[in-house]
Amino acid sequence: MTKTNRRRGRKDRLKQVSEPDPQPPVWPGVVGGRLKPLSPDEESLVEEAAFKLLEDLGLSQAIPSMIEKVTTAGGTMTDDGRLLFPRTLVKWAIDGAQRGFTLCGQRPENDLKIEAARVHMSTGGAAPGVFDLDTHAYRDSTLQDLYDAARIVDRMDNIHHFSRPVVARDIESNALMDLNTAYACLAGTSKHVSISVTEPRNVADIARLCYAVAGGEAAFRARPFLTEMVCHVVPPMRFAEEACEVLELAIKAGFPVQLISAGQAGATSPATIAGSLVQAVAETLAGLVFARLVDPEAKAIFAPKPLVADLRTGSMSGGGGEQAILMAGAAQMGRRWDLPTSSIAGITDAKRLDAQYGAEKSLAVAMAAHAGSNIITQAAGMMSSLLGVSHAAYVTDNDMLGNILRTVRGIEATPENIAADVIAGVCRGVGHYLGEQHTFSRMKSDYFYPEIGDRRAPRDWQDNGAKRIGDVAREKTREILSGYFPSHLPDDVDRALRKDFDIRLTRAQIGRPA
Fold it and tell me: What are the GO MF terms of this UniProt record (predicted)?
């Protein structure tokens, strides 16, 4: 076959693959949960240890409203200021937790059903830096970077949820940063958004902004498209007082909430994987109790996200096998109780798109996905141990996540899929499957095709410039950023928001006329 014919054949195949298909190879909510790094006995031991910590040790620094609610419900305040949670109360919180709810997009086609072991991929983090697309050097992250990340993700089929990945370091106050973070995320993508709020007094403005975008408070409460992520503890076993106030206010305002514990093994949680897991589970369950006492119908996500340190230096190390197995174990505990669960995975320690990046990120994300985590944050874009984000990495990670989701989908061994009659027909006939209708009919539904991953022969790759995957990703990223400005936020709504709030992204920056 000539080089021209090879290229023509490949173009024809790509054209066939790119056509819309009602049966895609992967989708948001592929069901995981088959990976269980903890044995049944170990699961029970982790549960028992977490319950014992809560009822015997409890947590310090509880806020007054929490003390009042927990003690009224059967908890105890000790003389040394620790709030104890009886296991009957913890089990009440677990048994009655909301399940099977929807994290809504601003557009319904982006809704995510959070139930059982359905898996969704997300960005995440609070990186202070960005790996610059042009200079290939780290610099401080800006509000523009946050908006750009959101609109790239809006185009990535296998990144289903947008969790704020960078801090807008060019905004001078916490109140303005929180407000503009919410705006930049909501303007940049119609997918479900998660953000953190730094101070309790800022919750009201975030709520007002969301109500205005939704068309009213009732409309937002019916279809909340923004989750507030709350690190309600300062490990070990202490509440973060301001964060607990944020949590209470967010629930009352109608936000879904993520309840996050993020101790660091060997520093703020035990050095052992099992000990770190137990502490994170206990701390997160304490948050779940409080959330349900604030509102029994609260949409609360169980999010134990313990981290790992390199004990030689004490610095965070998110790219190792320890982090991967810890996250899989945390997801397994969420599945034990059938709680809506979020895990942190993909925290590569790599500084750029290289072999280390791909190896560390794919290992951790794959394990969390196979363990059945409902929302896997940091799965895309994040690098440098949570200190930096690469916009181009969202494009490469979109391919990686598609491949991981395909493995989560599994083999699906059914009589129809085994296709014994097809095997028999081919063996008695032409001896290969290339011309079979069965092959063509399954080409799109059973196989994931990467968008920028290169599967060409070496000579074709060389003839086309021998570009590295990072170079291809940067080209694609520049193409998106130069020409794609989401339009899901109506123009009249955007203008009204600018009259009521101090929005720092200009109309020009979001691709709209002044």
Answer: methyltransferase activity
